[in-house]
Here is the input.
Amino acid sequence: MPSYPWQRSRYWLDVVPNSTEQDSSGVTVTLSMPSELNGKSTHNHGVAPEAKPSLTRAKLLAAVPDERQPLLESYLTDVLARAMGIGVSQLDLQQPLHSLGLDSIVGVELRNQIESDLEVVVPLEYFISLSIEDFITQVFLLVVKEAKSSPNQGTQGKPSTTDSMDSTNESSGTITSSEKVIPQANLWVTRPKPNPQAKLRLFCFPYAGAGASIFRSWLELLPPEIEVCSIQLPGRENRLEEEPFTRLSPLIQALTPVLHPYLDIPFAFFGHSLGALISFELARELRKQNLPSPVHVFVSASPAPQLPDLNLPIHRLPDDEFIQSLGRLNGTPQETLENPELMELFLPVLRADFAILETYFYSSADPLDCPITVFGGKSDPKVSDSELEAWRKQTQKDFTLQMFPGDHFFLKSHDQLLLNAIATQLSQPVGVMG
Here is the structure.
């Protein structure tokens, strides 16, 4: 197992109480200026408990052939909407399932319910890589396949129970890998609601193992003048079939040119943990190439990049030891760690993201010529106040350190407080709040 001089294991963390001074909102803020200028609540998702199934495989097969797929669509959209706590009318069938904010545990619960009701095995990959419409089609094809393999479980006396289903596109089997990914002009930049009237774009970089969908709720929680652009790295969600990056430098070199077309209006970066490191190095690369620079960089739950971390790397450990290490870091739900099928999907991208962090080597350069705001969790045991404070050396402009209640993932538990802080910081450079 290699040993690198600079190591980073500061994500998927435990909670340790930490008492600090705070204002009435529970937020602690430290402000400073350069020397020459000196003088929502947590989303609750989950499948509705013990609801009687509105559709079973027997009922589906007993329906008139032309009504079967609409019947399945009604059932699945209702299940999805209830699981996410929204109305069916709020679902867009072209919308990727992962963009609903479907986490791994809810995905397993949904699959268990669908499999119980329809008596088919639904691959977990479908929940990650398909749109709602394609998901409905694939589940329908699974029912077709199961009905053909178990003809006696169909409806007796109903001619063409399976034959009539052959009129669907069942001959194609399942969607191929090239069809799974919804075509996009730029797979790197996710813009669920393009806003030509936006005064600023906020590019958001996710933490290790996560995808662009973790920022979807931000669309409704930030002022309308801010267009949220989530960065989707290879190897996750709608880019599941692609190889993830394992080193930061090639990632930055690939990301810089695809981001260039979106830099036509003022923009800012937000990155959490791994995302903080990516956003910082990207800002330095933009400067190096004489491209537009961010008006503000927000870094969250990450020690300053110049600080060494001598912890042993884990990204090359055997699977069982790697999973045990994830468990000790207490950021991955135990149900996920104990689910072999889920871990088979997530291990490659987790290893890759850990490799980026654990092989990163900081090189000295001039501080950024834009303000830096640093966010931290008061109960985050792996990122100390002093490690957050050390970001001060990376800017020639204003520096702000703001602490929130919560652990390493305070961006989930206190998202509205965090977004209020971001919007406030962005109000002056582009007037996004009037």
